[in-house]
Amino acid sequence: MKIDLKQLTASHHASVPFSETIDLREETLYGAKPFQSPVQISGEISNESGILRLRGTIKAIYSTACARCLKPLDILLTAEADTVLTDDPEAEEEDDLFVLTGDSVDPADVLVPELILQVQMTYLCKEDCKGLCPHCGADRNVTDCGCEKKQIDPRFAALHALLKSDEGEQ
Ligand SMILES: [Zn+2]
Ligand SMILES: [Zn+2]
């Protein structure tokens, strides 16, 4: 939701709070749409002696899968912003500045990029996730499929490695 800044610029030391739920279901990241739950943003925009400043928090559930065992994971992500709003287009390259394109601002435009920065490339269901067996595909956290134990004779180790790399290419 856009916040009209004219009421703020008129009065030094004024502030406008915001709190809303935004919809990021169509946001695509790493080929997936990971934000299927409502995303919460809150904070305020204040006029501090003529400088407009947005402080806020964004909270979202990032739905992904364990990089090793593929188990579905819901990660709670939170990010914060403390950003000066400016209408000077020259300021664009500087940190913690948001360049306005008119008399209003949508806090989501400031906060969503901060959320995206929190996302890691990969997540694990737990530090020591054992992953899937490369031979039979069993979840090795749940079952001991025994595939490793079947490779006893060291003379077959090289052949086994060869077969394994073939499997990996499929
Ligand atoms: Zn896992
Ligand atoms: Zn196995």
Write structural notes for this entry:
This protein has helices at 6-9, 107-118, 157-169, and strands spanning 3-4, 15-22, 39-48, 51-65, 72-86, 97-99, 104-105. By secondary structure, it is an alpha+beta fold. The protein has two domains: 3-118, no CATH class; 130-170, no CATH class. The strands form two sheets. The protein has a five-stranded mixed β-sheet. A two-stranded antiparallel ribbon has the order 1-7. The protein is elongated and about 80 Å long. It starts with a strand and ends with a helix.
Share of residues in strands: 25-35%
Shape call: elongated
List ligands, each type once. zinc ion
- How many E-type strands? 7
What are the segments in which pLDDT stays under 50 over at least 5 consecutive residues?
A: none
Structural class: alpha+beta
Mean pLDDT across the residues is 89
Quickly count the helices.
3
Helix percentage: 10-25%
Number of domains: 2
Strand order of the largest sheet: 2-3-4-5-6
Summarize the biggest pleated sheet. Answer: 5 strands, mixed
N-C termini distance: 48 Å
The value of Rg in angstroms is: 25 Å
Order of helices and strands: EHEEEEEEHH
